Amino acid sequence: MKHQLQRGFTLLELLVVLVILALLGSIVGPQVLKQVGGSKTKTAALQIDELSAALDLYALEVGRYPTTEEGLKALVEAPSGVGNWKGPYLTKKVIRDDPWGFPYGYKSPGDKGDFDLYSLGRDNREGGEGEDADVVSWQ
Prior knowledge:
By secondary structure, this protein is mainly alpha-helical. The chain is built from one helix and three strands; from the N terminus they run αβββ. Helices cover 37% and strands 6% of the residues. A hairpin with an 8-residue loop joins strand 1 (105-107) and strand 2. The longest helix is centred in the first third of the chain and has 52 residues, at 11-62. The model has no long low-confidence stretch (mean pLDDT 87).
């Protein structure tokens, strides 16, 4: 009967591999998380562009932008008393929240233009930097 030699990893070899993986994670991890945060900001900017285009189409057909009270909901449901509404003006027929789960801010007439459309970012407060920065329609 032959004895087969089983070879495995020593505890020291496993510890070396774990240290290498931890070092790689500390280098790569923050970069990946930074890209995820940046992509949320880019997504908010794209959604604001999409909503702005829908608002422009609404204004072209109705003759005005939705009031602040009518809000963005006017893009998917006809407000009462609006005769030329030919919507919905969004393909998904739903007003999505911003990538951080907060509703987009909308004001018409706006302080910066015909309407102000914005996301307050991750912290849902005015101002901020990085992912907490506001994403606005008027820049």
